[in-house]
């Protein structure tokens, strides 16, 4: 019995693949220890348990092995009649056939789900193209990891826009999935690119996006509950500072020489679309980006991912290891560690973006923070 790569992974570990063999072993042990008992129910369960976790050949092999073991155990008992032998043997055969049919039905469903996820991810890529590898004096990389159990298009987005004298960036997470989220993502991206090109201050960009989300709230299915968490960043080309606005989003991480510093907002601020609940002027936090430092931005699908024990994922340990300065390599290392933590299963999409200051930018290793 050999597991197949296309079979589903039941639960959070690989133990289901061992369950058919374990049940078969238990049946043999019980039969040897209690000769007067019947282990037929255990034997009958083996091919059925194999169907969800093995390939079709593996499921059939489980039934054949079960049939052979059942016949051998039956012939060892003198009180089992030939008719009873026939009933048990034919029952295992029928159950094996049914298990094989179940295996094929499940394989078809898995393929349809896989195809749907691939289509959804292709649409997501069309809506959310990767930013250029270099924007001004910065190298940029992005990654998108779709949820393992979803075929719906998510609302995660990122954007980079170069303006005369600076680079402006945004990462955001729109509430909901499906076509409504896609429409909102498209609108936010268009509004960001327009505002980033024409509005001189970052708070003005936020005001434009807030205005858009208020319109969205009046149109989309979630109504007044429509909102988007976001981080907006302005990086002047001279490297003198970076300006960050955080609107209810996970804090970006500044990675430099093995140290990881979360750029927490100086004061909390409501997400986009909820500004009418009491937001006044948003705080703009000021930092500097040291030589060869990398700024890592991500949506909550990364930090809310859980392992089999329910523990949330923490990106800080892997980012604290020796890593190349290439932002793409940093994101690849982060995603590889995320897959290890979750065993490849995500409950929500995760979008990531990393920006590295090029070596020819001036160095400034001090960090300050202010509110404007």
Written description of the protein model:
- It contains nine helices and eleven strands.
- With 372 residues, the chain is α+β, with helices and mostly antiparallel strands.
- The protein folds into two domains: 15-119; 129-357, 4-Layer Sandwich (Phosphatase 2c, domain 1).
- Strands 1-2-11-10-7-8 form a six-stranded antiparallel β-sheet.
- Helix 1 runs antiparallel to helix 2 and helix 2 (40-50) packs parallel to helix 4.
- It starts with 18 loop residues before the first helix and ends in a 15-residue tail after the last strand.
Record the SSE blueprint.
Elements lengths: L18 H15 L6 H11 L5 H21 L5 H46 L6 E2 L2 E8 L10 E8 L2 E9 L4 H20 L3 H18 L8 E9 L5 E6 L5 E4 L2 E4 L22 E3 L6 E5 L1 H4 L12 H4 L7 H16 L7 E8 L15
Antiparallel strand pairs: 1-2, 2-11, 3-4, 4-5, 5-6, 6-9, 7-8, 7-10, 10-11
Helix pairs in contact: 1-2, 1-3, 2-3, 2-4, 3-4, 5-6
- The succession of helices and strands, N to C, reads HHHHEEEEHHEEEEEEHHHE
Shape: elongated
Structural class: alpha+beta
> How many DSSP H or I helices?
9
- Give the number of domains: 2
Summarize the structure.
With 372 residues, the chain is of the alpha+beta class.
Note the main attributes of this structure.
372 residues; disordered C terminus; 9 helices; alpha+beta; Phosphatase 2c, domain 1; 2 domains; five-stranded antiparallel β-sheet; elongated; 11 strands; disordered N terminus
